[in-house]
Amino acid sequence: MMGFMWNLLLALIWVVLTGDLSGLNLFAGMVVGYIVLGLMQRQIPMLRGYTSRLPRLIRFIFFFFRELIMANMRVAFDIVTPVWHMKPGVIAFPLEARTEMEITMVANIISLTPGTLSLDVSDDRRVLFIHAMFLDNEQSVRDDLREMERRVLEILR
Q: What pLDDT is recorded for position 1?
């Protein structure tokens, strides 16, 4: 998070120095700031790993859109066919996320995917209760959720 704040500060300095307050120029400042921080991250321990987050974020976006499309197609198929294939149920999903922000992001990403909904978090913040529309293979659902959580935590940590 600190790296992003430095990147934003460098982008704003770029905008002030160029005298052009446009979205494209701010984006250019973000790119220049990203490159500068990438060159400086070896000398400043606080910035270590900052430049590796952008490729992980891009991979996550593609992963999430693929999961989103597949889940939408599965739900749509279940709606348009006369036979219902869903077997709804609630599962307790043990979390690897520990901070409030990590738990919130994991729960929200799970809820954004059609067919799954985050219901509650246990009091000790170690278990997330999830309603799944297609719970015919519980281990498969857990594996998919584990992969989603792993990718979210990869971006946040």
A: 66
Determine what percent of the chain falls in helix, strand and coil, rounding each to the nearest 5. 60, 15, 25
pTM of the predicted protein model: 0.78
The domains found in the chain, sorted by start residue, are: 2-47 (no CATH), 53-156 (3.30.70)
Element (H, E) at 111: helix 100-112
Q: Which of 82, 73, 61 is nearest to 115 (CA)?
A: 73
Is a pLDDT exceeding 70 seen at residue 69? yes
DSSP H or E segment with residue 113: none
pLDDT at 85 over 90: no
What is the rounded CA–CA span in Å between residue 32 and residue 22? 15
pLDDT tens digits along 88-132: 999 999 999 999 999 999 999 999 999 999 999 999 999 999 999
Q: In three state form, how does the secondary structure of 60-109 look?
A: HHHHHHHHHHHHHHHHHHHHHCCCCCCECEEEEEECCCCCHHHHHHHHHH
What count of Cα atoms within 13 Å lies in the side-chain half-sphere of residue 48? 5
